[in-house]
Design goal:
The chain contains four helices and twelve strands. By secondary structure, the protein is an alpha+beta fold. The longest helix has 13 residues.
């Protein structure tokens, strides 16, 4: 079985931000708006200088039912949130992973993973580098180069992993 990566549709950052319920958290480096529920790490926003999202004012629904208007929030990540607040959402990112042992490219230079070895049946909640980690596990187990594709709410990754014994 093959897996064609193809082109992904664009998302509206403002539309995505306004779909969810958030907790407002103040820290020494600014205010954070943290999505609540499943895939919480997909939507973490930081208010610093008002220049994120082109300076647009975004309405965030808060968990207490109120609405918080934020001017120019920046979309950030779970690592930053943890570093500055101690709130750990690093295992709460939506991921979809495909692994194969070969790759070819279509006429648009998009990868086609050939001979798929593993493909998620659905989006999973996990860490950011899940695709790379799975590829390395499979490369070690099979003793050969493994290609991976990972889709997250913030975009996609394509890469490969080789077994450690080949690198020595």
């Amino acid at each position: 079985m093959n897996f064609e990566v193809g082109q992904m549709t664009m998302k509206s950052a403002i539309g995505e931000a306004s779909k969810h319920v958030y907790r407002k958290v103040d820290s020494r480096v600014g205010t954070w708006l943290v999505r609540q529920g499943k895939y919480a790490a997909d939507n973490i926003y930081w208010l610093k200088d008002g220049r994120g999202m082109g300076g647009a004012t975004i309405k965030f629904k808060l968990e207490d039912g109120s609405v918080f208007e934020a001017k120019g929030p920046w979309l950030t990540n779970a690592g930053e949130l943890f570093q500055y607040t101690g709130i750990d959402l690093r295992e709460k990112l939506s991921t979809f992973v495909v692994l194969s042992d070969n790759v070819v490219y279509d006429k648009n230079y998009d990868p086609i993973l050939v001979n798929v070895l593993y493909k998620d049946s659905e989006i999973k909640e996990s860490v950011y580098d899940r695709g790379s980690s799975l590829a390395h596990e499979w490369a070690e187990r099979l003793g050969k180069k493994i290609y991976y594709y990972q889709l997250t709410a913030g975009g996609s990754l394509f890469g490969s992993a080789v077994p450690e014994k080949v690198n020595q």
